[in-house]
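note to self: dont lose this again. the chain is below, predicted strucutre after it. 106 aa total, dont forget to put it in the shared folder this time
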Amino acid sequence: MYEYITLHRKRFCVHAMCLVVKVSESGYYRSLQSAGKPKPWQLLLVKIREIYKQNPDNDNYGVGQILLNIAKYLMGHTDISTTANIYTHPTDTSLETARKLMNPAP
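---
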């Protein structure tokens, strides 16, 4: 709908077109501000593609390995084994916390 308004805004009033197509005028103007900016999912896709290109064997990566590599990148680790140890070796305290969150006391 926003594209329609943009295409016809020289001919018709933006306020009137927003009323007719039932969108908020502020939403329309907000969409103009964010036009051309990459969406968060697009940035993530770029990072995933970078991970695949790092090594020829990466084309066999599954979701788990991709998530681990993204976590490594976000946490600033240089070695994936550091990140893997954090996520694959939970402590008793972290397990107890997770258990409490999954089964809250009444």
